[in-house]
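Hi W.,

Here's what went into the run:
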Amino acid sequence: MPDGYDKPTLQALHCLVEHVGPFREGEYLFRANDPFGAIFAVRGGTVKTSVVDTLGREQVLGFYLPGEMVGLNAIHPDHYPCDAIALDSVYLCRFSFPALATLAARIPGIQQQLFRLLSKDIGTASLLAGDFSAEERMAAFLVALADRYAARGFSATAFRLSMPRADIANYLRLAAETVSRVLRRFQDQQLIRVESRDIEFVDAAALRALARNVLHS
Amino acid sequence: MPDGYDKPTLQALHCLVEHVGPFREGEYLFRANDPFGAIFAVRGGTVKTSVVDTLGREQVLGFYLPGEMVGLNAIHPDHYPCDAIALDSVYLCRFSFPALATLAARIPGIQQQLFRLLSKDIGTASLLAGDFSAEERMAAFLVALADRYAARGFSATAFRLSMPRADIANYLRLAAETVSRVLRRFQDQQLIRVESRDIEFVDAAALRALARNVLHS
DNA sequence: CACGGCGCTTGATCCAGATCAGGGCGACTC
DNA sequence: GAGTCGCCCTGATCTGGATCAAGCGCCGTG
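Here's what came out:
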């Protein structure tokens, strides 16, 4: 949540927030069909959300970096519609949703912010909905990650992927082999440097050009 | 919006709503980048939303039937992120959003309802995000339409598609030819009967089985 | 009425990416 | 150190759906 609230507002927010964690790699923050009670802000680490279909196969829905909110899509069905899993050591702020909604009714700024967060998620959900090539998807994924890291004050040109290739592939609806091949192609074309999970942008402009149609049209 | 509000609430809602229309086939309700001011409930007809990418190609984002809300995804960027186009004769209720947000702060029921609508859209947006076969997508599309019609009191087993094949194809990220072929295959397999834009379910259970993984895993 | 044009269908070919198969390598255990 | 297990890479083959290319029926228009 952005700063810029006044004293009593911050006070109120402070009361209904609860620090939780650490969760270890592979631990569940919540599971599909758990009753909805709270939304979470990531303080540290990376979270992935996913669903498993009628038997077995996982579908990765998203990754959440420090500063981002998890669980907003649970408000409507009143149950979490997906699993949330720690990809590394994860620390969270837990916001009880009933309390937050009550606060939102008193303080317009909070309500506004919640509306924005929800509305924003609608947009980003449709990001990977288009029929894009593997290159476009991968470029968009990397650029979006870089931008999100940059927004939190980290380097926008070098970062470490906190998820395995298989999760990236699943998220982008590609085969893991394709992810591997596209990354190599990008490196051969001098767009990035790849060293296992470390990514460095070499030609950010070209990457952005590739990603342009995906993010968002 | 569901009924069940008390008198003063209904009164207040009544004040900020405005009937607009008719829009004729092909007319724009709003365009991408128009400043955001209101959300709309469809009273009659069908609306499609779409974006056009950097040059030309359209991407259909959704279809809206009577009783459904258009424009919720505009809250965050504060501009409409897509075009909204009438597919036939369209009648709307226009809700000024600033007024609605103010009202929501006073009346918790309204706020709740808005949260639900927003959260619900996050879920349905990720519906067609999975990597599903043409059959699964098509079945899911038909079943979802039938359910939405049924929820509004229309027949759940026979309805008329208000959009051309090309729009369905675009929405499902398929080629128009594929839509044609899949519909024919469904008819050959005795799942549905197709007569130009009229659809009749013959084996709804089988269709639902096909759609199951898509809606929503 | 003939003429276009558009929406829809059907068949033939093509291709991006899935799938299958195998190999390398770093981390951990015994 | 040898063995094992994940994770990642790379090559060969296969395939679902896109694309290309006609044809067909329907409606509006001159």
